[in-house]
Amino acid sequence: MNSWDPDMLRYYYINKEWMLSPRARIVYRTSAICSLALFFMLWVLRLPVVIPAGITPLVRLLLFAGVVGAAITIVGMEYFLFGFDDSPAWKKTLWFCVMLLPPLGPALYCLIVYSYSRVLMKVSAERDGVPS
Predict the structure, then answer these.
(1) Per the domain annotation, does 5 fall within a domain?
(2) What is the signed CA dihedral for 47, 50, 54, 57, rounded to 10 degrees?
(3) Which of 21, 86, 99, 110 could link 32 by a cystine bridge, Cβ 3.0 to 4.6 Å?
(4) Over the stretch 30-66, which tens digit does the pLDDT of each residue have?
């Protein structure tokens, strides 16, 4: 056990096939949209507006969905950034700094980088039977 094995670094807690699957793309994009909605809801709630008592439960439900979406986006996109993103190191560093600003940063990373990454496109092409 004293020898260093480079394959030890490739152990993923989340299965690679799941992380790059079509269902995961839907989950992460939906979560990113919920995260963006949370950002704008928090911004609007800071304004001096009175929320009618009748829609308070709906606002709370939307805030809860936004928080859950932000949490999923933060965890998933950090995991993708460190495990699967094949961008240059300077881009990873830049996006890491942007992702330190939740709920906006991880959502932007998901919609700009994750959704159009070469890794995701390659897996989609292989799944569809298109030779790379």
Answers:
(1) no
(2) 40
(3) 110
(4) 999 999 999 999 999 899 988 899 999 999 999 999 9
Cβ-proximal residues to 74 (8 Å cutoff; 6+ apart), any chain: 99, 102, 103, 106
Q: Give a yes or no: residue 33 inside a domain.
A: yes
Cβ proximity of 31 and 69 under 8 Å = yes
Cα 47 to Cα 42: distance, rounded to the nearest angstrom:
9
Q: Helices 22-45 and 56-83: crossing angle, nearest 10°?
A: 130
Considering Cα of 23, then 63, then 14, then 108, what sign does the dihedral take? positive
| Tokens describing residue 129 | 């039977």
Is residue 132 in some structural domain?
no
Q: What is the pLDDT of residue 124?
A: 83
Range of the domain at 30: 16-126
Residue 6 included in any domain:
no
Q: In angstroms, how far is CA 29 from the centroid of its own chain?
A: 7
What is the pTM (predicted TM-score) of this model? 0.83
